[in-house]
Every structure is written in C-alpha cells, then in structure tokens.
Design goal:
By secondary structure, this protein is of the alpha/beta class. It has two domains: 80 residues, Immunoglobulins (Immunoglobulin-like, Sandwich), CATH 2.60.40.10; 162 residues, Purple Acid Phosphatase, chain A, domain 2, CATH 3.60.21.10. 28% of the residues lie in helices and 24% in strands. The chain contains seven helices and 15 strands. It has a four-stranded mixed beta sheet with strand order 2-9-8-5, with no helix packed on it. Strands 3-7-6 form a three-stranded antiparallel beta sheet, with no helix packed on it. Helix 3 runs parallel beside helix 4. It is elongated and about 75 Å long. The chain starts with 13 loop residues before the first helix and ends with a helix.
C-alpha cells in the first residue's frame, strides 16, 4: 500500500506509549464486550419486576377458564407479560390466558414471565382440575325443561348441586315429590344434592323425607371446593332472637381461616324487581345481620 510508513516514537515517548496501551487494554473489556452479556447484567440499584398473580388456579372440565397475570415494577410499568408451556386448550392474549379444558383433563401447568426493560420475573402456575358446583331453583312447573336441564347437568359431573327452593308446587302433595324424584334421580345418584326450603314446600314433612341433610335440615352448612356453603330457611323466623340467627353467627365463627369463599344459599332474594317484590322480614334480618357482623 502506498504512503505506508512505520510509526516511530521518540525515545522520550516510550513510557507514554506503554501507559496508553495499558489504558486502552483495560478499557476494552468494559466497552467493547458489553454487547455479549450486557442484557444479563442488572444495572446498579435496579430491581426486577414481581409477579403478583396467584401461583395456583382451579379449572373445571367443560367450563370456561381464565387466568389474568399481574405484576409490579418498582420504577416503571411492566413492559410485557408472556405465557409459556401452556396446554393446547389455552390461548394467551396480552396479560390473560383462557380456554375450555376437556372433561377428562388432569392437573396441568403453565408459566408466566413478566418483563421490565432487561429484567424479568418467572412464575410457574399449577392448574388443579376440580369438579364444578351447580346452583339452580324454582322447579315447580315445566317438568320437560327441568328434565332437559338435569340431563345437561349430569354431563358436567358436578361435585355438588344446590337448589334454591320451590322444588315442587305444593310440598304436601306426594305425587309432586314422585315427579321431582324421577326427574332428578340420575343427578342425585352422581352428585351431592343440597336444597333450600322455599315457600311452596310449606315446611312439609315430605321435604325432609326426601333428603338427608346436615344439622336440622332447615339450615345447615357444607364445604366443597374450598368453599363454605351456608343454606338458610328464609321462610321462617330469622330475627336476632331466633334459633336460626344464633346458629348462623356460630357457624360463621367456626369457618376455617383456610377457606377461600363463603356462599349463602336461600330462597327469597334480598332485593327483587319481580312481581313478588322484596320480603320485609328477610330484608330486616339481613340489615340486622350486616350491621352486627359484616361491618365488624
């Protein structure tokens, strides 16, 4: 190559050149190699994001499932959330993953990863398959519709079925109970069945002859799927001095702290826009109960 000359330094600059070489050599690993592993180095004082959504979830075969992932970052918003290792029946979209699991699905898992700049957090999520719990009521009439509904419920293989009352039109008529038992026989053979008393049962002995229920069979509690279910009789006295009211307070106090949900099942609604309207006695009870219990 033309005009190429060797670099010649005066003897007085030898020491300066040596120090210059050492300085450049020391600097190279810091700047020149940063592209190899800089993404894996946490900036001084930086903190990774933290996934705050649960590490466990429950799903039921044949029923819609959705899990929403949440995460926090100390100094900024989360850049993105992704899902990995999920089964074929799940579909991720933004911060959620959803789908309908097959009826025969066993427990499964997937992984959530939250990114904040070049930092991330990872959370394995265990999905436990649990049988469903069904609630329905007012089956006094429309027997063909009731039968079709029961046939569909049987296919879901529920862990328990709750009936909110008015099982028959007149609880004192044996033939009506025979019809009810014929319609529900397949469902009650496969699942626990827990009815509440409605006004059409008329406190009839035939109601109690048809079921074997906890406590006094008018008001009782059971636990399924980590949920405490309380079944009440809204057709009898529920005032603060009643036996039912005192039982309810004691039952609430006895619930294990590990129980996730508490559900109350009864016939008359707290509020209604229907032709029957709201029941004054029931609403009065609930206001009294709320003031004395829930607010404290």
């Amino acid at each position: 190559m033309k005009n190429q000359y060797p670099l010649i330094l005066p003897s007085s600059c030898d020491r300066c050149a040596m120090w210059l070489f050492i300085f450049v050599w020391l600097f190279l690993p810091i700047s020149g190699c940063s592209s190899d592993n800089g993404d894996n180095v946490m900036p001084p004082g930086a903190e990774p994001p933290v996934i705050t959504s649960p590490s466990q979830a429950e799903a039921t075969g044949g029923l819609y499932f959705r899990y929403r992932a949440t995460a926090t970052a100390v100094d900024s918003e989360i850049d993105s959330i992704v899902f990995s290792g999920y089964p074929h029946w799940l579909t991720p979209d933004s911060d959620s993953i959803f789908g309908v699991p097959p009826d025969d699905l066993e427990d499964t898992t997937f992984t959530v990863v939250a990114f904040d700049k070049n930092l991330s957090d990872t959370l394995p999520v265990a999905v436990t398959m649990v049988p469903c719990i069904l609630v329905y009521g007012d089956t006094r009439t429309g027997h063909s519709v009731h039968q079709a509904l029961v046939d569909s419920m049987v296919l879901l293989k529920p862990a328990a079925v709750f009936h909110t009352g008015d099982l028959v039109s007149d609880g004192t008529v044996a033939d009506q109970w025979a019809t009810f038992n014929s319609i529900t026989s397949a469902l009650r053979a496969e699942s626990d069945y827990f009815p509440a008393l409605g006004n059409h049962e008329h406190q009839s002995p035939l109601f109690f002859d048809n079921f074997e229920l906890p406590n006094n069979e008018q008001w009782y509690s059971v636990e399924r799927n980590n949920t405490h279910f309380i079944v009440l009789n809204s057709c009898v006295d529920m005032g603060p001095s009643s036996e039912q009211y005192r039982w309810l307070l004691a039952d609430l106090d006895s619930i294990n702290a590990a129980i996730t949900f508490r559900v109350v099942v009864f016939h008359q609604p707290l509020h209604s826009t229907g032709r029957h309207g709201a029941r004054t006695l029931w609403n009065s009870f609930w206001r009294q109960f709320s003031n004395n219990t829930i607010s404290t």
